[in-house]
């Protein structure tokens, strides 16, 4: 079965090739989600993320190999390194959104406390529902962003847009807390949340080479038992489950969107043998790598 190589969505391409309204290549506005040229076909977001709000109709989209449905009052949040494909809109579909550079995202996240909800959301919930009041609030902020991006010559436009995005994330805290269940008392949770965020950042950076919880615990100067307790308390997933999620997502994308042989993928993902690679994938996904590539996912 012939597959396509994964090409990249970058801020530079959105601005240069598609002439989309932007500020300083850090924020690119999408006035209507119907005009997402870079998300036609298989694309990997590169050093950027996308946030969109569906205001009417229905859209289907495949994110990292899994089909998602967005309808009115839904937010679409697609993070850096995610692969998207198979976008279909109903005739009445509409919405607005923006791309954000990874650099700007990192600057914004520095100002957010208790970030574990955001991390859980981006890795578990690429599409999630908000209330009509929350939708109206997001529309107000997006409208203000549109005005500022339309007048980039104004001295503080970039800083105002950055603060608007920061405020949008703060306004969405209720939606995040509805999704992230089982929170502990604040005095205990804050420590666990900091551990969770640090752990996710380490896994994002090293999951292709390191899949042992003991290694991550050593980097964080924690015992494996304490790390497991903290991660499980915040996310209701074990540290191993998070590692497996990152690894299998990357393997899915390489199987579906590249022409690389399975043996090549196994080597690139630092598996000792192709046999071990196949067993790992089948244990976590339910089918062999070759069956998944041929569209036989359970």
How many strands, which pairing sense, and closed or not: the largest β-sheet?
A: 6 strands, antiparallel
Helix/strand/pairing category: alpha+beta
**How far from one another are the termini?**
19 Å
Strand content: 15-25%
Summed up:
The chain is α+β, with helices and mostly antiparallel strands and 298 residues long.
Write up this protein.
49% of the residues lie in helices and 19% in strands. The chain is built from 13 helices and eleven strands. It starts with 6 loop residues before the first strand and ends in a 5-residue tail after the last helix. The model is unreliable at 182-189 (pLDDT under 50).
Write the layout of secondary structure elements.
Blueprint: E1 7-9, H1 11-16, E2 22-23, E3 27-30, E4 43-45, E5 48-56, E6 58-63, E7 66-71, E8 74-78, E9 83-89, E10 94-101, H2 102-109, H3 116-124, E11 127-129, H4 132-150, H5 157-171, H6 173-179, H7 186-206, H8 213-219, H9 224-235, H10 239-257, H11 262-268, H12 274-285, H13 289-293
Parallel strand pairs: 1-4
Antiparallel strand pairs: 2-3, 3-10, 4-9, 5-8, 5-10, 6-7, 6-9, 8-11
Helix pairs in contact: 4-5, 7-9, 7-10
């Amino acid at each position: 079965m012939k597959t396509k190589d994964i090409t990249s969505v970058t801020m530079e391409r959105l601005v240069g090739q598609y002439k989309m309204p932007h500020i300083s290549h850090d924020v690119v506005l999408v006035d209507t989600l119907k005009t997402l040229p870079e998300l036609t076909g298989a694309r990997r977001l590169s050093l950027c993320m996308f946030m969109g709000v569906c205001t009417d109709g229905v859209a289907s989209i495949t994110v990292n190999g899994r089909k998602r449905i967005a309808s009115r009052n839904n937010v679409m949040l697609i993070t850096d390194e995610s692969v998207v494909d198979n976008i279909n809109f109903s005739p009445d579909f509409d919405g607005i959104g923006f791309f954000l550079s990874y650099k700007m995202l990192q600057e914004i996240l520095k100002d957010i406390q208790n970030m574990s909800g955001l991390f859980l959301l981006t890795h578990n919930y690429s599409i999630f529902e908000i209330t009509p009041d929350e939708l109206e609030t997001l529309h107000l902020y997006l409208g203000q962003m549109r005005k500022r991006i339309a007048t980039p010559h104004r001295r503080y436009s970039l800083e105002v847009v950055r603060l608007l995005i920061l405020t949008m994330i703060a306004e969405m805290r209720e939606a995040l807390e509805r999704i992230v269940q089982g929170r502990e008392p604040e005095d205990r949770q804050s420590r666990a949340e900091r551990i969770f965020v640090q752990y996710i950042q380490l896994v994002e950076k090293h999951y292709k080479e390191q899949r042992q919880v003991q290694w991550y615990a050593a980097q964080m100067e924690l015992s494996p038992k304490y790390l497991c307790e903290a991660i499980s308390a915040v996310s209701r997933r074990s540290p191993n489950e998070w590692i497996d999620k990152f690894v299998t997502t990357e393997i899915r994308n390489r199987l579906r969107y590249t022409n690389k042989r399975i043996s090549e993928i196994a080597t690139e993902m630092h598996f000792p043998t192709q046999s071990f690679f196949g067993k790992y994938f089948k244990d976590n996904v339910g089918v062999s790598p070759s069956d998944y590539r041929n569209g036989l996912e359970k």
